[in-house]
Structures are given as C-alpha cells and as structure tokens.
Amino acid sequence: MQKFRVIDLFCGAGGFSRGFKDVGFEIVLGVDNFSPAALTFSKNFPEAKVIVEDIKNIRGVDLEALVGTPDVIIGGPPCEPYTGANPRRMKDPLDRLYVDPVGRLVLHYIRLVGDLQPCFFVMENVPGIMENGLREAIQNELARVGYKEIYFNKLYAEDYCTPSHRLRVFISNIKLKPKKCKGRIPVIEAIGDLPEPGSAHIPNHEPVPLSRRKLKKISKLKWGEALIKYRGAKRLHGNFIRLHPYRIAPTVMGSSRFVHPFEDRLLTVREHARLMGFPDDHVFLGGRDVQFNEVGEAVPVPLARSIAREILRNLES
Fold first, then answer.
1. Kind of pairing, strands 151-156 and 167-172?
2. Could you give all domains of the chain from N- to C-terminal order, each with its CATH number?
3. Average pLDDT score over residue span 222-241
4. In DSSP terms, which residues pair with 228 in a beta bridge?
5. Is 119 labeled as catalytic in the residue annotation?
6. Does the pLDDT of residue 233 top 60, yes or no?
7. Strand 72-75 and strand 120-125: pairing?
8. Does the model's pTM come out above 0.90?
9. What's the pLDDT band for 137 if we cut at 50, 70, 90?
C-alpha cells in the first residue's frame, strides 16, 4: 500500500504527526525552532528528518531537496497573537497577521505551502484567527500561492474521543467532516488506571512538587473550582482547577496545571498527555515546565487521527 508523505511545520512534540502516523502516513520531516521540542519529535519519529531552525530562514526548495515533494503539509503556527486568552495581543486583527512578528509566521507557513504545492495542507490555530478581516486576508494569501478553495473547519476535540475540551480551527484546502465519537471520555476514564506518580516506570509520570501553602489551598477545592483566576483579552480564565472525574477536562494549555479529582496533588505531565490522547510510549523531553508546554501546545492525537483519516480517504480516491 502506498504511504503518503507528510511534512509537519511547527511540529512541536508531534501530536499532529502522531495522528497521521497512526493512520499510516509516512512522517518525513518536522520543523521547529525550539530545540527541546525538536528533540522530543525526533525521539518519537526516528524515521523523520528534523530541522531546528526559524521557519523564516527556510526555503521550500531546501525542503524539497532534503525530503522530496510531500503529499500533505500539516502544522500549527503559534496561536498567542490570535487567542483571546492573551491580554497583550494587538488590537487590530490584521496587525496580528501582518505586523506581529510571531503572528507573521502564518504567512511563512503559507509561503512554504505555495513553494511545495502539496495535494492537501492543514493548518491548525485558534478560532480568533478568523476575526474581523483575518479570514479574508488568509484566503487571499492562500489564493495568491495557488489555493483558491479554502475551508475553515471548526472542530471540537472532545467530539473525537479526546478527554478534554478544545476548540480549534483547521484551515485547509479540503472540507473536514470527520466521523464523531458516540460519547465523551471523562477524566477518570483517561487517567484512572495510572499508578501513583513515581511508583512505576511510566515516562513523564513523576510527581509535581508543591509548597505546603499551595497544598493546603488546593485541598479545599471542589470539583471544577480554580485556585487562580486571571483575565484574558475577553474573559476570566482559571488555573489550578480540580478536575471533575466524570466530565471532560478543560482545555489543556502549556500553562495549565490541574488538580487531581480525588487526591490533593497536581496532575503529572503523563496525566496531561492522557487528557490530550497521547499514548504512554510518546515520550516528552526537556525540563518539567517544557514538557507541560509540549503537551499543551500539541494537537490532540485522537483529533489528529480523525483529520488524517479524512485526508487519507481523499488521497486514495
């Protein structure tokens, strides 16, 4: 059976690629400028080449010379310039794309898609990337490099067997309508079979230290309550939330720290990874905070698999 080839831009720890690999794609290249994330990607995808470089310095012709022409390009440029959780994002939405140096990375993703001309591409980001003229601007940029039929697919991760909430938009040249799961996977089903942190040889399942003061505070939290609240661009957000065992978890972010439903402790990196659908053999490298970031910035693996199946079906037909 033919194996279709995938390049992952802004690959991070490889959640998006993991879903495509599980479905049968060949992951040929990952690109990320953050060394610990690139090392994590390389550890989990030893068959792929990895480039540790700012995407602004990469040309399509160089990628083509290295791995050939891909069938699919995936990737998620940083969402901080676009998310409502960032109180410091630029007020003018178009400035987030054309002025903010981090926001402009979306344009470099589009540039490389134009250079390499894959059959399909999928770019993941937050719904804020469609606000007030941004959608039309991105459509125009993609049309300029040869892709005139563009879809903004809003998908909830929990609809696709992910034990946590996550709403993301997947910008693609194909309409994505994956088959949904029949029910939701609650927190306790995702993490309940794990042993005590540090008691077994499970990667990234070490206990997270807390001060006595914080331990005392989290011991008083009820299910769904947050120890810390902070204001984003649009609303209040919570952190150090005690998870409800029989519901899905809130959005897992790099800065997220969750309190165990029944124990007075924080969840481990592995438990966060379980909430994002990562299998236990997907290992995260770097310091503990880096590992939390790698998990929180990933595309949930079950959602990635669902998208990959849609792409595969269209490639085969």
1. antiparallel
2. 5-183+298-316 (3.40.50.150), 187-296 (3.90.120.10)
3. 77
4. 239
5. no
6. no
7. parallel
8. yes
9. very high
